[in-house]
Amino acid sequence: MPRAKFQTMTEQMFYTLLCLKTECCGMDILDRVPEMTGGAVNVGSGTLYTLLEQFCAVGWIRETRVEGRRRSYILTEAGREALEREYRRIQAQAEDYRRIFGEEDQK
Amino acid sequence: MRDKKRDFLPYSLYDYDAYARHFAKMARRGWMVEGTAPFTWVYHRCEPRELTFAVSYFARASMFDTEPGEEQSEFIAFCQRTGWRLAATNAQMQVFYNERPDPVSIETDPALEVETIHRAAKRMYLPLIWIMLGLGVLQLLTDRYLDPAVFPLTFLSHGSTLFSLAVKLLLVVYTAVELGAYFLWLCRARRAARETGTMIPSAGHRRFNVAMLALTGILLISSLVTSVLYGERLYGFIVVLMLVLMAAAIFISWKVRKLMMRRHASRTATMLATFGTAIVLSVVMVMGTLTVALGYFSDDLLRENPENLPLTFTDLYEGTDYQESIRRDGSPILTCLSVTQFEVPGDSLEYTLYEVKLPFLVDPLRDLVLRDLEKDGTVDGEHYLEADPAPWSADRAFQRDWQGEPLNAWLLLYGGRIVFISVDSDPTPELMTTVAAKLGGKGE
User: Labelling B49: which of A105, B13, B229, B361 has CA 20 to 30 A away?
Assistant: First the structure.
């Protein structure tokens, strides 16, 4: 199920992976995502917990350290590729928009 | 002033909205949820507050955990980071509250939320419901009273049998509805998450659950009242004793679990100790109940007073030194009195008197007997031929025969009374008049 689901990422998945470009723990992600998006995107604590578990399971992130209840993670090469695929998909959508509305906007 | 409060919530496991709303209402009234006891949620007194509650599910949690494991602790820490404090747990169900006015929800991805709930449900809730449904169906299939060969009046006059059958039916209906409703909700929630990215409200069936509980209670009480009124006193005694002992077994098992948890025993040890206690207590209590009830009290509870019999050996014959066996059964529908009195050697009297208690059931129950007679001439495995009802002052009379040979046994219909009677020799007109008066209520 998760693999099929990950073919298209939700905003929460996208920003969670983006946060993990550098090593950080789950609780940092809870703070960083709203900061990064100006409060437009929030990840719920339960959702983040499940996402981290599933990302680990598909090999998009890996656990780097465990300090008490704090687990740290970092993006893997596979995760980076997935993020890049998603970026290209979003970019393609943006280009489609520009192609359709770009000329009108210039007028 | 009380500092603790308990209540019973008839909600299904996945009815998270109903739980959250109820706990928020309790907090507004000054009661904070803190955990569970057998069948109930427990609250402690607090300052009345406006709090937001959320029920989340953690599949790897167990009701046998002494304290949250590493993963669960991490999950709780995540929640704390966003202001959610853990108030109570019940196995996989985690109850959080948040003091912030508009907190970020614990679950913000509907698709993941649905799967999280389903993962938790698969751990204990669904297997338990499937097992209960399977046991209910098995019990129904193997119920000997559902055998078409069983005489319907025998079945309908046994209050205990009717009650146990009704409870088995209720169990099957309840579990089937619970499973059906769950999987319906799961399909709808998955579709909504996939197509609209929204989480549909949890849809329990609270009224149905309450109705099922009320119905079980009514059945139980009416069965006990019937057992006392219509002669199944031993059954009533056993049911009451079993209920008390079952409640004690559940309470003791729960105490054992709490004790093991206080001693920080492992999940496996706590589980083994709890289930072990429950199984041992159940076996001991069932055996004990039967031994006590059948061994010590059965004589008192089964003994019937011959003075209450409508017809006795002495009403028909001279002798007084006879042996007897009397059995009474009854349900709100029908009572049954079976009497055998005989001298050795000498005369004998044997009769079974069914009396329909509900006037509107008189005709349907008579028709039930007559339909069998009209079909193949047999009732309760015996063959009968229509006879003249006049000497018996009955509405209809049928005489039993064996391979064409008439026997001194009759089936007599008197309004709401259905009488099976057999005597030793050909009945005299006086005997028939006495039977009509005593058993048929004619000329009383």
Answer: B13
**Degrees (nearest 5) of the Cα angle A30, A32, A33?**
75
With both helix axes pointing from N to C terminus, report the angle between B159-196 and B233-262 in degrees, rounded to the nearest 10.
Answer: 40
CB contact under 8 A, A48 and B56: no
Q: Please state the separation of Cα B133 from the chain's center in Å.
A: 14
Return d(Cα B336, Cα B332) in angstroms, integer.
11
- Burial code (b: 16+ CB inside 10 Å, e: under 16) for B5-30 equals beeebbbbbbbbbbbbebbbebbeee
* Burial of A24 from C-beta contacts in 10 A (0-12 / 13-18 / 19+): middle
**How far, CA to CA in Å, does B43 sit from each of B27, B33, B87, B253?**
9, 4, 10, 21
Q: How far is B271 from chain A (nearest CA, A)?
A: 26
List CB contacts of B69: < 8 A, sequence separation 6 or more.
B60, B61
A67, β-bridge pairs: A70
Which residues in chain B have their CB less than 8 angstroms from residue A50's CB? 109, 112, 115-116
Decide: B230 and B34 in contact? Cβ < 8 Å.
no
Q: Would an 8 Å CB–CB cutoff place B111 in contact with chain A? A: yes
Nearest by CB to A12, from B56, B75, B109: name it: B109
Q: Tens digits of per-residue pLDDT, B195-243? A: 988 998 887 788 899 999 999 888 888 878 877 777 667 777 777 878 8
Token pair belonging to B67 = 């304290």
| Residue numbers in A near B107 (CB within 8 A) | 44, 46-47
Q: If you count them, how many residues does chain B have? A: 444
Cis peptide before B359 (omega within 30 of 0): no
Q: A65 forms bridges with which residues in the sheet?
A: A72
Q: What is the pTM assigned to this prediction?
A: 0.81
> What is d(CA B376, CA B251) in angstroms, rounded to the nearest whole number?
55
Which residues of B are less than 8 Å from A45 in CB distance? 75, 78-79, 81-82, 84, 104, 106
For B393-443, write each residue's pLDDT tens digit: 999 999 998 888 889 999 999 999 999 999 888 889 999 999 999 898 876
Beta bridge partners of B42: B6, B35
CB contact B79 to A (< 8 Å): yes
**Cβ atoms of A31 and B93 closer than 8 Å:** no
Of A1, A5, A49, the CB nearest to B78: A49
Residues in CB range of B305: below 8 A, 6 or more apart: none
CA distance B387 to B292: 48
